[in-house]
Specification:
- A 4-stranded antiparallel β-sheet has the order 2-3-1-4.
- The longest helix has 16 residues.
- The radius of gyration is 14 Å and the shape is globular.
- It starts with a strand and ends with a strand.
- The protein contains 3 helices and 4 strands.
- By secondary structure, the protein is α+β, with helices and mostly antiparallel strands.
- Helix 1 runs antiparallel to helix 3.
- Helices cover 34% and strands 36% of the residues.
């Protein structure tokens, strides 16, 4: 049986864009949680470095996550945060135990 796909998306905003980034990331939560295959989608913000955000996601499989990656909510996010992202790292992971 195929294990679910875990995604760790790390976003670092430019210091002057923290509020914008947080607002735009929050907009993604509700619609994404309703998507087919989304098992978990939680946003975290670093306590010491407020410009650093992490989405911890769990998807039924990679194919359904790929559908999510092509949706209009993410396209709008990318447009609205253009120039606000300092770094973005995405890890596709599988739970070991």
């Amino acid at each position: 049986m195929q294990k679910p796909l875990t995604i760790l998306a790390q976003i670092e905003a430019n210091p002057e864009s923290v509020d914008l980034m947080k607002a735009e990331l929050i907009k993604l939560i509700e619609p994404t949680r309703k998507e087919n295959g989304c098992l978990q989608y939680t946003l975290h913000q670093d306590n010491e470095k407020p410009e650093f955000f992490v989405f911890y996601e769990t998807w039924e499989n990679r194919e359904l996550w790929q559908v999510h990656m092509k949706n209009e909510n993410l396209a709008a996010f990318m447009k609205n945060t253009e120039g606000a992202i300092k770094t973005f790292t995405l890890n596709e992971m599988t739970q070991v135990d």
